[in-house]
Amino acid sequence: MSREQSPDRPVTAPGSALPPGSAARSDSASPGSAAESAGAAGRYEQLRQAMTRCGDPSKAVQMAAYMKNRFSFYGIQTPARRAIYNELLKQERRAKRVDWLLLDLCWQDPGREMQYFVCDYLLRMNRFLIWDDVPRLEQYVRSRQWWDTIDVLTKVIGTIGRLDARIGGLMLRWAADPDLWVRRTAIEHQLGWKAQTDTALLSQILEACMGTEEFFINKAMGWALRDYSKTDPDWVRNFIEEHVDDLNALTVREGSKYLTW
Asked: Do residues 100 and 37 lie in contact, with contact meaning Cβ atoms separated by under 8 Å?
């Protein structure tokens, strides 16, 4: 993912989790017993301790600065972070069962690397996610938001959408949501679909999101057009020509990158 600009926010140091009682959603296969809750809490604690051991305070400062100090970090770069939980993800794929209790605890952790773990987990387990899991994913989309996690959650939701047409209707509603990150998810959810792209839906979503100066929306619209231009440049060229008066210059520039006029 390429870097995007963000406003300055104060940094807080990662530490222990927020109260476990705030993670009240059930496992995807059952309501979640006391034993399951305890198991999730134990695995979360093992992850937290491992990240604390591997964390580098100086790197944490640099990583927070890269994200304009919106989040605190343990200070673990991507290869080392993924090495911490690679075996866990292999075990989860073999079990074919999503541990939402664990994911909730990790999502609430102050350290940003824990949200990256959740994103990696969901990508690895994407084939086991279904329509009924979307409300859980939506809670992640609507909290601890920034482009780094949103653009991964978008892929997760988009993968569900390839197999379940209901995602299209939901994304059309999200395109009109007051939350810019929810709108961005709707705009980007068909990235990489190539010939599977629903162009009528793409057009409706883009039209719903026009007329804003919001950088993250205009950038996402440009990416959506640029991505589909690799499959059908004529469609993208015609869309830009028809809406040029309503599209932000950033959207046109990004969307036109691979086009010839």
From this structure: no
Sign of the Cα pseudo-torsion (13, 19, 23, 29, in order)? positive
SS3 at position 111: strand
Helix (H) or strand (E) run with residue 139 in it: helix 134-141
Distance CA 41, CA 253 (A): 47
> Which residues are CB-contacts of 182 (< 8 A; sequence separation ≥ 6)?
141, 142, 174
Q: Tens digit of pLDDT for each residue in 150-185? A: 999 999 999 999 999 999 999 999 999 999 999 999
Overall pTM surpassing 0.85 (yes/no): yes
Rounded Cα gap, residues 68 and 87, in angstroms = 32
Distances (CA, A) of 11 to 55, 66, 110, 160, 191: 16, 12, 10, 35, 32
Using a 10 angstrom Cβ sphere, with 0-12 exposed, 13-18 middle and 19 or more buried, the burial of residue 232 is middle
Q: Residue by residue, what is the 3-state secondary structure of 143-166?
A: CCCCHHHHHHHHHHHHHHHHHCCH
Altogether, the residues listed in the chain come to a count of 261
